[in-house]
Specification:
This protein has 672 residues and is α/β, with parallel strands linked by helices. It contains 22 helices and 20 strands. The protein folds into three domains: 97 residues, OB fold (Dihydrolipoamide Acetyltransferase, E2P), CATH 2.40.50.140; 284 residues, Rossmann fold, CATH 3.40.50.300; 159 residues, P-loop containing nucleotide triphosphate hydrolases (Rossmann fold), CATH 3.40.50.300. 38% of the residues lie in helices and 19% in strands. A seven-stranded parallel β-sheet has the order 10-11-9-12-13-8-14. Strands 15-20-19-16-18-17 form a six-stranded parallel β-sheet, with helices on both faces. The two termini are 26 Å apart. Bound molecules: adenosine-5'-diphosphate (ADP) and magnesium ion (MG). The site of magnesium ion has 2 residues, from helix 10.
Length: 672
């Protein structure tokens, strides 16, 4: 058996268990062995029965003298056993586990692990784990691993299966990490790490195992990225480009505005890539409105000056046609022929070679267009940052430069780790003249004053306001809907009875949603009360106030994206972050919103303060879920990057590592 063997090949695992295991993401033996405990029960104290004290958590070993079911006065069934180890006797009590009187046999020796407590006037052991002393103990007498469970799969069950895999040496675990790397950091072998993470003798073994397994996680992610980079760069470039510097400067000069310093810096990075003899693969990250499109337009112009085509892909038809308009405005005066491809607009049959720029959704472009002279592909707003698109391009045997653009605030550290195959550019500066959204944290005591201020703005300045309530649970459940509905009632009746309020949440039918948004857009509502669903897609330029309830429950990046819903028009906009707190760390964190206005920087800060899970639904962005390592561990990220960089050139010398990398990569690209 090896790690890729299916779990259903194991003894005692039939189709029913295989199905349950799948719910935990466990299909192969590898998945099972890499299903790590999230904590341990410490039953390592083994005591003589005569010495146990109420309150202690420990293991006793003794012979069962008797065991029986009893009924309480309330009609509940309890099980009672008496156990002796020669030093003394103790009673053991369970609730509602009648089957125990059959599995635990009087006269035999067992270990029991659990809490010693009072039961009436008696000292007893309550609700313990038990196991026979005929075999090595795994459920008692030690640090006992507790796992993520699912219906029908308990930690005890997992423990037994994993222990038998590890003990019987069924499994051929080969260590893929080169000795040099292991020695340098004094890391233990993979076999030890996997054995110790499940069944440690002490806390030091847990630490050593976690150190090794965390290293593996980041090391493989980065090595895989470097390998993708190497493969991408190995391919011969479709076309060699020259930089027509004078003409580009002229083009930039004729723009109706001057570029920000950030735009200039990013353009230098991109233009320099375009003239190299390796294909570019760059990720441009910048908030909504930071001016990414014009950066792409200049790059497209630079390609046009060489006589080649560019392609711009957008995720939706609406975005594609917006880009089409923008590019036409900037590029047509310079003679570029631009074509929009959507569901209804087919590419022209003839004269394809006369077209300089194709704009469209990626699906269309993947199918219909000959990439005969495409030297640059720009991908806008893709969550998976172009991985699939690049794969499609390679299939078409073209190898253009690729620029991917995103407004998702990914902290630099995460971007550098996960997208090690991409070069990164950040637009961390807004075009001038854009008003910053004035942001205040409003503690509990100032709530009344803030409501009065909002009423004045609405009555006096005819402004419009969003009020966002947080999701109470992970997704928009009934509980959250109820909370936002209650708040809506309270606001309409008690706080703003004289104003027009609307309610928006994810459980409304899309028709209803549209109608409410349109009412708000037409100015027939003053205030829109909403769950964070408005984070995506709602664009209402005349709304100027964003008020967020329980702001401390949100990540800074998410607050920043919500704040981006206002400040889209001419008027000064405001963001009020309400919190029930009156001070402390959480308020300090929110205060960053008053000073900072770049999404990636806020995300980075939040990563430091709260850790990665909190930034945003990371799974939604196709980030791998780390099992042990943490994105806040900068030292480990750096260390593993160095190790990966040092090794990528000689990967062929390490066949085990190459093999691991392959199976790892396959797992990565299979969509969840
Ligand atoms: P993004 O795609 O990054 O969200 P856009 O490229 O759509 O942003 O730009 C937003 C708006 O800002 C557009 O109307 C664009 O013309 C304008 N703009 C871009 N760069 C500048 C600049 N340097 N100065 C003034 N306005 C700019
Ligand atoms: Mg854009």
């Amino acid at each position: 058996m090896d790690l890729l063997t299916s779990v259903s090949d194991l003894r005692m695992i039939g189709p029913v268990y295989a199905k349950r295991l799948k719910k935990l993401g466990i299909e192969s033996l590898r998945d099972l062995i890499y299903h790590f405990p999230f904590r341990y029960d410490d039953f390592s104290l083994i005591s003589e029965i005569s010495r146990v004290q109420p309150g202690e958590v420990l293991t006793i070993k003794g012979r069962v003298l008797s065991i029986k079911n009893e009924y309480t006065k309330a009609g509940k069934r309890i099980q009672k056993a008496v156990v002796s180890d020669g030093t003394g006797k103790i009673e053991i009590v369970w609730f509602n586990q009648p089957f125990l009187v059959k599995t635990i046999k009087a006269g035999e020796w067992y270990a029991f692990a659990g809490k010693i407590d009072w039961f009436g006037k008696k000292i007893v052991m309550v609700f313990p784990e038990h196991e026979s002393l005929k075999e090595r103990t795994i459920h008692t007498s030690r640090l006992v691993p507790i796992y993520p469970e699912t219906y029908g799969i308990s930690s005890k069950w997992l423990r037994s299966r994993i222990a038998s895999l590890l003990n019987e040496n069924l499994l051929d675990i080969k260590d893929f990490l080169p000795e040099g790397i292991k020695d340098k950091d004094k890391m233990i072998s993979l076999k030890e790490a996997l054995s110790w993470i499940h069944f440690p003798d002490n806390k030091e073994q847990i630490a050593a195992a976690r150190k090794r397994l965390a290293f593996d996680e980041f090391f493989l992610i980065q090595l895989a990225a470097l390998k993708r980079k190497e493969e991408w760069q190995k391919r011969p470039l479709s076309y060699k480009l020259l930089l027509h510097r004078e003409k580009i400067i002229e083009f930039v000069k004729k723009l109706p505005f001057s570029l920000t310093n950030a735009q200039k810096r990013v353009l230098r990075e991109i233009l320099s890539d375009l003239t190299k003899d390796k294909p570019m693969n760059r990720l441009l990250e910048g908030d909504v409105g930071s001016g990414k499109t014009i950066v792409a337009a200049v790059a497209i112009y630079a390609v046009y000056l060489n006589g080649f085509q560019s392609i711009l892909m957008a995720p939706t038809e609406i975005l594609a046609s917006q880009h089409f308009q923008t590019l036409k405005q900037f590029l047509s005066p310079f003679g570029l022929k631009i074509v929009l491809l959507t569901g209804n607009l087919k590419p022209p049959k003839d004269n394809q070679e006369k077209i300089d720029v194709y704009v469209g959704t990626h699906a269309l472009i993947q199918r219909k267009v000959e990439f005969a002279r495409a030297a640059l592909v720009v991908i806008d707003e893709q969550h998976r940052f172009g991985v699939e698109q690049r794969a499609a391009l390679i299939k078409k045997n073209t190898n253009p430069h690729v620029l991917t653009m995103t407004a998702t605030p990914i902290p630099r550290t995460i971007a550098l780790t996960l997208y090690g195959d991409l070069d990164l550019s950040f637009l961390d500066e807004m075009p001038p003249g854009r008003q910053r959204v004035k942001t205040w944290v409003v503690p509990k005591i100032k709530r009344g004053a803030a409501y009065r201020w909002i009423r004045e703005r609405i009555k006096g300045e005819k402004e419009q306001c969003f009020i966002v309530c947080p999701l109470i649970e992970e997704s928009e459940t009934l509980k959250s809907i109820k909370a936002v509905t209650t708040e809506f009632d309270r606001l309409s009746k008690e706080i703003f009875p004289d104003l027009r309020l609307g309610l928006l949440h994810g459980k409304l039918k899309s028709k209803e949603k549209e109608e409410i948004i349109n009412q708000f857009r037409r100015g027939e509502l003053d205030i829109l009360v909403s769950t964070p669903v408005i984070e995506v897609g709602v664009d209402i330029p005349q709304a100027t106030i964003m008020m967020i309830e329980d702001a401390d429950r949100f990540g800074l990046a998410q607050l920043h994206q919500l704040r981006g819903r206002v400040g889209r028009g001419e008027k000064q906009s405001f963001c009020l972050l309400f919190t029930e707190l009156n001070g402390g760390k959480a308020i300090e964190r929110l205060r960053a919103m008053e000073k900072m206005c770049v999404g990636a920087e806020l995300a980075e800060l939040d990563l430091k303060i709260r850790g990665p899970g909190e930034i945003y639904g990371t799974a939604q962005h196709g980030f791998p879920r780390l099992k042990i390592a943490s994105f806040t561990d900068l030292e480990l990220i750096q260390k593993t990057r160095q190790a990966a960089n040092g090794l990528i050139g000689s990967l062929s010398k390490f066949p085990l590592l190459r093999q691991e990398l392959e199976s790892y990569t396959i797992k990565q690209i299979v969509p969840d």
